[in-house]
Design goal:
The structure is a homodimer. The first copy, chain A, has helices spanning 8-26, 34-41, 45-53, 67-78, 93-100, 137-144, 155-167, 194-202; strands at residues 31-32, 65-66, 82-89, 109-116, 125-126, 129-130, 132-133, 148-151, 172-175, 188-191, 213-214. By secondary structure, chain A is an alpha/beta fold. In chain A, helix 1 (8-26) packs across helix 4. The longest helix of chain A has 19 residues, at 8-26. Chains A and B meet through helix 1, strand 3, helix 5, strand 10 and helix 8 of A and helix 1, strand 3, helix 5, strand 10 and helix 8 of B.
Chain lengths: 215, 215
């Protein structure tokens, strides 16, 4: 199954399905349907059935999906049926918040190390971690065999940090710095930039335009 | 121009173009091309030209785009040629980090208020803000005419907070709680959930699979 090519647009929706199914599981639910999932997620039931049928189909028409089985299958496809160590680069507000976040563990991830280049931050505590010096980063990541990193440094430093991470063997980067990075094709990258998300919505705000302050 | 319908998928790419153009502007650049933008962003130049041609086209074949002019036009389309006040709900790690973040102002946004329901957090300081009680939230938002909110509360409280925000007149929500919210059609919502982004990438990690710990 894992050798079959699955279009990236479908892979992109699977974590959304998984999150909702895990929520249902927490609520004690056993069975769901593409209709119910669709209503929760604002995605058409036909789309959900089509996406899930890529993997041989987990449900039968009329009987619905067994939530726990579907969770297990999606975790396997997404390879989060294990726990991936993550390194966090940057011990500022965002890096620290991410390192302390308790919600990764049951979704396949565990923060393992946090690095910063600022001498005032090195050796300080962030949650249960001690901030390590960036100068030791490449060797530490390489030795631990870590493949996943989060960049939470200022934009001006993000590309250099990314280059070092890739040299250290990192294959997946979640970048919080508000800048597009130049990454070789064998490395995956995802971006989190709240201003981008906000700017996607303001175009549609039509009422109350008398309120905002002209820049 | 603002009355013309622009497909949402194009609106979604414009903030990415804008961020890159503002970066170029900071670097002192005056003119760019769809080729250069495309290389920076990993988007095809043809796509960029097509997207920008939706608005009458800002550049001429062979002469490129005047960066400052393009920035101004994109800001108008996205309605970030003004500064929108934002409310932040939840003064935990993420809410506090967002409230202190200095990078919103020159991208069209300003955090105006932060609320929390925890008596231990109310009246404490977060950056230059004093955390206000959630009990006053609806009235305060309504009175200030604020349209944009960020939710940074635990998943279990997020739907109730969203309902209150919508009652208060909020039209755009950036939700950091890892749960899909039920929102009426006239309200826009965007999600930030780092685990979702990470799970989009792990499917592709094939090397080093001996390293991760089996859950």
């Amino acid at each position: 199954m894992e050798n079959n090519f699955i279009p990236d647009i479908i892979i992109g929706r699977l974590p959304i399905y998984l999150r909702s199914l895990q929520q249902m599981n927490t609520e004690g639910r056993v069975i769901t349907s593409s209709q119910e999932l669709g209503e929760r997620l604002g995605i058409s039931p036909a789309q959900i059935r089509k996406d899930l049928s890529q993997f041989g189909g987990f449900g039968k028409q009329g009987t619905g999906y067994i939530i726990e089985y579907l969770i297990n299958q999606l975790c396997k496809i997404l390879k989060v049926d294990r726990v991936w160590d993550i390194v966090v680069i940057g011990a500022g507000d965002i890096g620290s918040a991410v390192a302390r976040y308790q919600g990764f563990m049951d979704r396949g991830f565990r923060v393992a190390m946090i690095f910063d280049s600022n001498p005032e931050k090195i050796n300080t505590s962030v949650g249960s971690f001690t901030v390590q010096s960036s100068s030791t980063m490449i060797a530490a990541i390489h030795q631990a065999g870590i493949k996943v990193a989060m960049i939470a440094v200022p934009s001006s430093q993000a590309q250099e940090v990314a280059n070092q991470l890739i040299e250290a063997g990192i294959q997946a980067i979640l970048n919080y710095a508000p800048i597009t990075l130049n990454i070789p094709p064998h490395v995956r990258i995802q971006y989190i930039d709240p201003a981008i998300h906000l700017q996607r919505m303001t175009h549609y705000l039509t009422q109350g335009e008398e309120h905002p302050h002209r820049a």
